[in-house]
Amino acid sequence: MMQLIECVPNFSEGRDMAIIKQITDEIEKVEGVKLLDVDPGAATNRTVVTIVGEPDQVLKAAFAAVKKAAEVIDMRHQKGEHPRFGATDVCPLVPISNITMEETVAYARRLAERIGKELGIPIYCYENAAFTDERRNLATCRSGEYEGLKVKLADPHWKPDFGPAQFNERVAGSGVTAVGARDFLVAFNVNLNTTSTRRANAIAFDVRERGRTKREGNPVTGKIVNDENGKPVMIPGSLKSVKAIGWFIEEYDVAQISMNLTNISITPVHIAYDEVWKKADARGVRVTGSELVGLIPLEAMLEAGRYFLRKQERSVGVDNDELIRIAIKSMGLAELKPFKPKERIIEYMLESNTKKLVDMTITGFANETASESPAPGGGSIAAYAGVLGVSLGTMVANLSAHKRGWDDRWEEFSDWAQQGQKYKDELLRLVDEDTNAFNKIMDAFGLPNKSDDEKRIRKETIENASKYAMEIPFKVMETSYNSMEVMKAMAEVGNPNSVSDAGVGALCALTAVEGAYLNVKINASGIDDKVFTDELVKKGADIALKAKGCRDTIIKIVDQKITEL
């Protein structure tokens, strides 16, 4: 699956849009990244830019932006309300999907090293990318701001992590940049049926990690309790990694709990929503809905949908669109204005406009297959047969989870349905990827073929594209065979009235395996690396044999169950 990271560079210019555009133009030149947002602020004289893409491409775009910022922003003349010490003041990387924080840290440090080495800009690594605990805190790294850099860089204690350790004219205008890795921050507001800011604040103090000031006697008017150092003692709130305040929004005529969820792996949106609901209810206030500010990762919405389905003791093995719908309805995300997933979920924002086979109607897909176009071909059809097979197995699991009298078994079948959905989604991806693999071969054959270098490059590209075209149907084989575990389980323990559906699913899965194997073998003929092809063909033969045995076992179970009805 594709890895995605977000980069949120902050540039010390928020007034001159021509300068800002020069920087963002550099980002948009890089293929494979998407410029999601440009947010300039005149008072702060600062622009926050959001870009998303695969890690290597994001690093390339970030480096180009930092380089251009150093050329067009002169920190010797820059003033604004926001603390700053560099033309590119901060450049954090944020893991979005299929990537760990540890991997993100490695990318951040790689970017930091390149900026320091190639651009001569001193770099401090902060938050998760920091090399010392002291430098985790951005405010500590930035203390003294731009005006204090000459003294700071001369102090051995503040030697940069990368780049030069002195303040000279060549880097004076660009200052210093902090490069970091942090968790995804979600701005999330919960709506209340009150106009009272005081009541909203009380709820905010109940939930936010910092909590509220401890007082003697009356919790509102009592004397503040201080510790031995004279600092107020705090009563922590119930949610970790959450900042919150209550406010009144005149536009909507409601009070809200405005929250920054600074680590949604610790406190995700659905937990924050439910906790505010509980604390509000305890104070006689009702939650009426919520509002998401900015973007959110897909998995955060999917997990919210699963959370609310589990509370209903219903199967979570449904498609992504249904999970998102449940999340929107359960948290009232559309109360104040329509919530459009295609505009609010990061992964959906990144989807290309390229026409996909899987987005066609059934009739359209059949017509496209039957046309004179060579793709989609047998590989895509084999993958789609696998989709249909595991979809039937998943249907049986969902029917079983909701079968009257089987209420205590809903979770067992929900797990199977969820597993089936994963196989289905992967096979859907492979429907289009098989055609993409074919197109890669065609593109490779179209490369220049005159000079020796061109011939060598063309030959290598054709070889690699042909290998990929062999690997995709092999992946279809693996996934379709593995998906048969769902059909087998449903034939054995699922709703007996749907046992024939599990059997049909197994037949489709075997068709997918055997059909994809034909593509594995035919694609092997165009590859010079016979060690590679022989190994994949051998593995394919083993999977095909196992799949046939599994099909036979499932059909035997199905026939037996049908005779018992």
As a percent range, the share of helical residues equals 40-55%
Q: Helix tally?
A: 18
Number of domains: 3
CATH arch. level architecture of the largest domain? Up-down Bundle
Beta-strand content: 5-15%
- CATH class of the largest domain reads Mainly Alpha
Overall form: flat
From the alpha-carbon coordinates, what is the Rg to the nearest angstrom?
29 Å
End-to-end C-alpha gap: 43 Å
Q: Please report the total strand number as a whole number.
A: 13
Q: What is the SS-derived class?
A: alpha+beta
Q: What is the CATH topology classification name of the largest domain?
A: Four Helix Bundle (Hemerythrin (Met), subunit A)
The fourth-level CATH homologous superfamily of the largest domain is Formiminotetrahydrofolate cyclodeaminase monomer, up-and-down helical bundle
Poorly predicted residue ranges: none
The main β sheet shows up as: 7 strands, mixed
User: Which whole number gives the mean pLDDT?
Assistant: 93
Q: Could you describe the 3D structure shown?
A:
With 565 residues, the chain is of the alpha+beta class. It has three domains: 4-181, 2-Layer Sandwich (Formiminotransferase-cyclodeaminase, Chain B, domain 1); 186-349, Alpha-Beta Plaits; 357-564, Formiminotetrahydrofolate cyclodeaminase monomer, up-and-down helical bundle (Four Helix Bundle (Hemerythrin (Met), subunit A)), CATH 1.20.120. The protein is 52% helix and 14% strand. Strands 1, 2, 3, 4, 5, 6 and 7 form a seven-stranded mixed sheet that branches. It has a four-stranded antiparallel sheet with strand order 11-12-8-13. A two-stranded antiparallel ribbon has the order 9-10. Helix 14 runs parallel beside helix 16, helix 15 (410-445) packs antiparallel against helix 16 (452-493) and helix 16 packs parallel to helix 18. It is flat, with a radius of gyration of 29 Å. The model has no long low-confidence stretch (mean pLDDT 93).
